[in-house]
Amino acid sequence: MENVNKILAVNFGGIGDEILFLPALISLKKEFPNAEITLALEPRSKSVKDLTNVIDDLILVDIKNKNKYIELLKFIFMARRKGFDLAVTAGGNKFMSIILFLTGAKKRYGYDCGAISRKLLTKAVKLNKHQYAAKMYHDLVTPVTANITELPEINVPVQEKISNTVLIHPGVSKMSIQKGMVKTINAKTWAEAIDLLSNAGKRVMLVGGPDDEECIETILKTVKTIKFENLYGKTKNLRDLAELIGKAEIFICSDSAPLHVAVAMGTKTFAIFGPTDDKKLIPPNVTAIKADDKCPLKPCLWDKRQTTCATLDCLKITAEKILQTILNTNA
Predict the structure, then answer these.
(1) 44-92 tens-digit pLDDT
(2) Which domains can be identified in the chain, with CATH numbers?
(3) CA–CA dist 185, 306 (Å, integer)
(4) What span, in angstroms and rounded, lies between the C-alpha atoms of 273 and 28?
(5) How far is C-alpha 122 from the geometric centre of its chain's CA atoms?
């Protein structure tokens, strides 16, 4: 391929999506080490840049804004001015193929969404959703590089482990809750898990972000033991959280962005999964904790429905199950 000096990557999603997208960007950087990589993303996810040195610049596109089409037009004009040599989009619809074409990038790569994408893209890549999401995103760059980056990697040093620690991050993004996507157990069950883990001799630490305030408050009112460390509010940004996750021997979380940070930090991780598909969102070295329900639609969120159901049998996971899963896995 001719000289590639400027690369545009487009991924409109939450911070978890951006972390899962990192392996594709890392492989591009290995192939084109002197190229400048610009990532176009939503403002809510801009903190991903604090975790990596492969992203040189950001273009913030507020597609949740009521004037989203104006935002997209501004993005297109900005991209045209920058003159990108290569562009890749993680969007799984033909509209993103059109957007990428309008940016004027010389080479364009995205998913095959039909005749339009095959016409407008340099290479339309087959979209395989039935695999780990980081690999699904990485498929986008296979036409231009033989490099393979299997897991997210972040620019945070390896941390010294604190002996016998279990770090708990109970929350999910407030946006997912507002959209009716319930993806974790209730605060009462988290409190019970803290009690059981503390009674089992574990050094439990509790952490959370701004979206988790209500959940943390309920946990603090419900938990019985005083033998745990409340670190809520101690982490000021995603990098602080990554360092704390790196210090823990065990990390327990929901299906949320901290899960993908933990994967990148290499910490032994247990993740609560209910309506979403763990096979698509975690690599083999992460343990999914799931209910023993027999729901025929599970996993349903995104594949079969856009919001969760009222019964949420898939999230009726007991604190005892969380404890036993961790003890049995570490036996």
Answers:
(1) 999 999 999 999 999 999 998 889 999 999 999 999 999 999 999 999 9
(2) 6-141 (3.40.50.2000), 165-329 (3.40.50.2000)
(3) 19
(4) 31
(5) 28
